[in-house]
User: Fold this.
Amino acid sequence: MMPARENGETIAMLTPQQRHAGLSAELAQRARGIAHALEQGRVGEAERATIAAMALAPRHPEILRLFGMIQFQRGQFAAAIDTLSQALAQRADDPMIYNALGGAFEQIGDAGRSREALRRACELGPDLATCWFNYARRLLVDGDAAAAVPALQRVVALQPEHATARGMLADILRSDGRFAEAEAQLRGIVEAAPTHAGSAWWNLALFKPMPLTSRDIAAMQRILKRTDLAESDRIATSFALAMAQEHAGDYAAAFAQMRRGHALAARTQKYAAAEFDRDLDDILAAFATPVAEADAAQGGETIFIASLPRSGSTLTEQILASHSQVEGTSELHDLGEVLMDECDRLRRPFIEWVRTHTLGQWRVLGQAYLERTRRWRQRRPRFTDKMPANWMYVGAILAMLPQARVVICRRDPLETCFGCYRYIFTQHPYTHDFADLASHWRAFDRATRHWQALYPDRVYVQEYEALVADPDARIRALLDFCGLPFEENCLNFHATERRVATPSAAQVRQPIRRDTARADKYGALLDPLRAALGLPPFHP
Assistant:
């Protein structure tokens, strides 16, 4: 893409003097001050100065651009689009105007025009890392990760220290199975700023095989001794160090490091076990009996996969996505957003309106979900929805989509809870404490039994240990439950090439392993967790 030029220069490379051409020396100085104030977040100061400048130069593209950015900061997105469009009319090839327009269009929900504006910004400003980063982020929101890769690579080439871009690129590469390239991006972050690379250290720790060495362990230990480390980096580095120590066989050190990381995380991530239990009990009571089928034909396209983390849900999805009739999608937010939209529309909490909704209203919600997820049925007639927490909403799922199938994955409670304890889960505050983990497990177990009893022909429990012990039989049973004919590819799921965005990306590209249990390696260190789960203490 060749950028447009103005006076022999690419518009992106305009000097301040060129960008402020046509302004008096005083107004040019004021424009520079406005831009500086915006960079530092002093929006009020920038707004007052811009209003004064607009009285003197109301049509100047740079003044208009700055005012549009202020409107954006104020949440006045429609007004910002109007102002930025006026600026574009005066300077049609300014990538920074397109960049700002892309953000404003995104805020009003116009994904198409947002993407086009950001694409145009990159076309006109090929050396502007900001434009390429915003375009890449837009592509990822649109689900176009393949197109985001070259955009992120461009950001890294222009700005090698851009840790966020490197991290996003590493996530995509890892999801695509390009582990060596992903590791190189994360190593680049660590090398550039090891004390600000907690997320990079943690993501490196998730790779299989584990790439962290004794030198990395020593480096992380030195970093954690610093007093100027941000708390988020300290937490992530702590868990990465624990993973590396576990891999090295030093289980006592690994467990101590996990405890330190959880103690830090628990300070800001609180879990109210009693309140969660009450809410879940209300949901189960609201769906004490099956909702009559509103439309016997609605929902057969969808296979929901729910679980607690670290219970084999990614493996189950990989098996199903290896079938010629099933599109694997990973974790979709559509069900939750449909339910939240209904809460907003009715101005009532979920637990209130579910008790009074008619069959027709459930049908409409199901149709809304199917419309939102239509893109996943373009290649294959059926698709998976692997949002783990949907185990709480099985009643609503089957009221909306009576023909859907729900697979709930479960694993040995000790391995499940300790699996959660070994990981950083920012949206799962119950993972920081053994008592909370046990309480959450019991809630999950209670809900699973309720749904399976209520909908025996629509809810299937996939036991991880049974799958590992006899993959052929359990995969055939899973396919039969989903109404899918047997296909050999499902047994050879590890050969299926698809993007996997969870921490299990490497594991599902291998045959089923029988060595994933870890609790016994930690021995009596986990006796407090065993006690919380009502299990006997460790015996070698």
